[in-house]
Amino acid sequence: MSRKATNLTKKKIFEYCMKSFAENGYSNVGLRNISEGTKLSIGAIYYHFSSKEKIAQFLYDTAGRLILNEIKTAVENAADDREALKSIILVLFKLTEEDPYLMKYVLYTKHKDFLPKAQPICSTKPFEYIKKFIKAKIKEGVFEDMDVLIASSLIMGPIIRIIQLRMDNVLKGDIRLYAESLLDGISRSIFKKQI
Amino acid sequence: MSRKATNLTKKKIFEYCMKSFAENGYSNVGLRNISEGTKLSIGAIYYHFSSKEKIAQFLYDTAGRLILNEIKTAVENAADDREALKSIILVLFKLTEEDPYLMKYVLYTKHKDFLPKAQPICSTKPFEYIKKFIKAKIKEGVFEDMDVLIASSLIMGPIIRIIQLRMDNVLKGDIRLYAESLLDGISRSIFKKQI
DNA sequence: ATAATTATAAAGAACGTTCGTTTTGTTTTC
DNA sequence: GAAAACAAAACGAACGTTCTTTATAATTAT
Question: Considering chain A, what percentage of its residues have pLDDT values greater than 90?
Answer without folding.
Answer: 83
